């Protein structure tokens, strides 16, 4: 934050919900995009039922082998219309579909006013009438409706442009992530957890293919796969073809990822297929009360709160795990590897309610 005093920031704590600001310091140089080295996580998995051997095995595997570097479910949104579908429609230049996917009624839990707004839109296709049903105008739906009101239904591209750029790009990045997740599953299914000729590795920022005679010099931890775009190369084995097939099925040309609108042209990037977390530690703790915290948060430390006192022989067991991950990797995917089970919101909330009853 530029030229803001710590006092002014600390003052916000009176009105912030569910998070606190603190531990400030002044620096002469700003933080810039790309400077994040990673994130350190402390996660508690409660009410575990596995044996100590199973826990040790799972955590050793996480530390030594790692996990498939999938994009986490949060990348694809939490509603009935995944963000990658909207991204695909943008790349196809299908603007009526973009408008429809964002505004049409959708099943699942949504705020009441959004349901009313969507119903109005489905009935009248009138942006002004739909906006009237929307008290919160800053959501994507509200911004698109304002755009349609301003530019008219024949100029959806300009109307969509009212949505902040980061939000618009999120949709097409989500489509890239969706392709990448699918392709990495195929790659591991086809060739397993070893480097094979035709795979890609990075030399500096440049991707090169692994040649037959070179394959013993690399492991699965060196292998990267591309996010589709106009400035990447693809593996030289079956998976290179699979990329093309997937994009053809979506009416996209892998050899022409430039878009009429420059913002939506995809240059692509490379991503490691397996990530080994750093600083992995874990312990199993016993507890009786499901509502007491099992470790001290950063806030507890700042406020000088003591460590929670836990029973040695509690009714429940929890796995407390810590690990560090590089930027753009998902702790949810590391946890999924440890649990060997579905970590979607729907599945996890069902678990919570059954054992808390």
Please report the total strand number as a whole number. 9
Task: Kindly report the spatial arrangement of strands forming the biggest sheet.
Answer: 4-3-5-6
Low-confidence stretches: none
- Based on secondary structure, the structural category is alpha+beta
| Share in β-strands | 5-15%
- The SSE order reads HEHEHHHHHHHEEEHEEEHEHH
Shape: globular
What's the story with the biggest beta sheet?
4 strands, antiparallel
Number of discrete helical segments:
13
User: Could you estimate the helical fraction of the residues in percent?
Assistant: 25-40%
As for the number of domains, it is 3
- Rg, rounded, reads 24 Å
Overall pLDDT? 91
Protein name: Pseudouridylate synthase 7
Keywords: Isomerase, tRNA processing
Pfam families: TruD
GO biological process, one term: tRNA processing
């Amino acid at each position: 934050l530029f030229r803001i005093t710590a006092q002014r920031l600390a003052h916000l704590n009176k009105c912030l919900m569910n998070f606190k600001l603190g531990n400030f310091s002044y620096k002469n140089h700003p933080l810039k995009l790309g400077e994040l080295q990673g994130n350190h996580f402390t996660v508690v998995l409660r009410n575990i039922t596995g044996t100590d051997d199973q826990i040790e095995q799972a955590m050793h595997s996480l530390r030594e082998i790692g996990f498939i570097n999938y994009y986490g479910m949060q990348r694809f949104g939490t509603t009935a219309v995944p963000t990658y579908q909207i991204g695909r429609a943008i790349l196809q230049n299908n603007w009526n579909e973009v408008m429809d996917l964002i505004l049409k009624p959708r099943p699942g839990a949504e705020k009441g006013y959004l349901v009313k707004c969507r119903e109005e839109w489905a009935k009248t296709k009138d942006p002004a009438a739909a906006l009237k049903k929307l008290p919160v105008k800053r959501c994507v739906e509200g911004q698109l409706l304002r755009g349609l009101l301003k530019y008219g239904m024949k100029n959806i591209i300009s109307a969509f442009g009212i949505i902040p750029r980061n939000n618009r790009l999120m949709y097409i990045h989500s489509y890239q992530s969706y392709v990448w997740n699918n392709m990495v599953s195929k790659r591991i299914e086809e060739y397993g957890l070893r480097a094979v000729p035709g795979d890609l590795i990075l030399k500096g920022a440049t991707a090169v293919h692994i040649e037959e005679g070179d394959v013993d010099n690399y492991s699965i931890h060196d292998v990267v796969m591309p996010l589709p775009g106009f400035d990447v190369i693809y593996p030289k084995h079956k998976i290179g073809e699979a990329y093309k097939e997937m994009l053809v099925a979506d009416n996209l040309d892998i050899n022409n990822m430039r878009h009429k609108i420059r913002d939506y042209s995809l240059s692509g990037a490379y991503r490691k297929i397996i990530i080994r977390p750093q600083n992995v530690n874990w312990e199993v703790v016993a507890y009786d009360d499901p509502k007491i915290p099992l470790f001290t948060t950063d806030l507890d430390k700042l406020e000088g709160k003591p460590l929670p006192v836990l029973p040695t022989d509690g009714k429940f067991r929890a796995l407390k795990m810590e690990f560090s991950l590089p930027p753009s990797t998902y702790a949810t995917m590391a946890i999924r590897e440890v649990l060997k089970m579905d970590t979607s919101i729907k599945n996890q909330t069902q678990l919570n309610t059954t054992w808390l009853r």
